[in-house]
Design a protein that fits this description.
The chain is α/β, with parallel strands linked by helices. The chain is built from eight helices and eight strands; from the N terminus they run H-E-E-E-H-E-H-E-H-E-H-E-H-E-H-H. It is about 40% helix and about 15% strand. Helix 6 links the parallel strand 7 and strand 8. The longest helix is centred in the N-terminal third of the chain and has 12 residues. The two termini are about 15 Å apart. Homotetramer. It is an enzyme of class 3 (hydrolase). Keywords: Hydrolase, Lipopolysaccharide biosynthesis, Magnesium, Metal-binding.
């Protein structure tokens, strides 16, 4: 049985070609991994919600040999905890210039820009998104970012958009079936 995500038939061949080259995906947090809203308790504690689907998708990417990085303009202990829990090797917080942060990763990893996917939703993400070989955004992202992205997910930020991007990359690299195989095994 061949497994394909329901959107795979909607992915243009040019997009699949770009996604097939990806060795690193770099992600923004607020608006991509979370819904972009800032929640505060009555005592001033910051709260965030992360989608569990996105987390498993990122783990599947890493297991398939794709490096994951998170580049965010804000500093948050909650973000650090979530990325640590997921085993994400590159967390760059407090980085307003995300393109510069991406340049550092390119140098450190000795990769080319066309081997990078960048996923962001707002103006600070635009230079990094345009630099990367595959720029991804979300439908609730800023209009100019959507205009410059190679792909806009059907899921909103914080609602499975990262998982959709992970499935795109895994599909393009013929690695999705292997990533899903252990969940489809049956007892004999």
């Amino acid at each position: 049985m061949t497994v394909r995500p329901s959107l795979s038939s909607d992915w243009p061949q040019a997009l699949i070609h770009k996604a097939a080259r990806i060795r690193l995906i770099a992600l923004d947090v607020d608006g991509i991994m979370s819904d972009g809203k800032l929640y505060f308790s009555a005592t001033g504690d910051e709260l965030k919600s992360f989608n569990i689907l996105d987390g498993l998708g990122l783990k599947q990417l890493m297991a398939a040999g794709i490096t994951v990085a998170v580049i965010t303009g804000r500093r948050s202990p909650l973000t650090e905890k979530r990325m640590t829990d997921l085993g994400i090797p590159h967390l760059m917080q407090g980085r307003e210039d995300k393109r510069q942060a991406l340049d550092e990763l390119v140098r450190d990893m000795n990769i080319q820009p066309d081997e990078i996917a960048y996923m962001g939703d707002d103006l600070p993400d635009l230079p990094a998104l345009r630099f990367a070989g595959l720029g991804i955004t979300v439908p609730n992202g800023y209009w100019l970012v959507r205009q410059h992205a190679d792909y806009c997910t059907s899921a909103a930020g914080g609602s499975g958009a990262v998982r959709e991007a992970c499935d795109l990359i895994l599909t393009a690299q013929n690695k999705l079936e292997a990533a899903l195989a252990c969940y489809l095994e049956t007892d004999a």
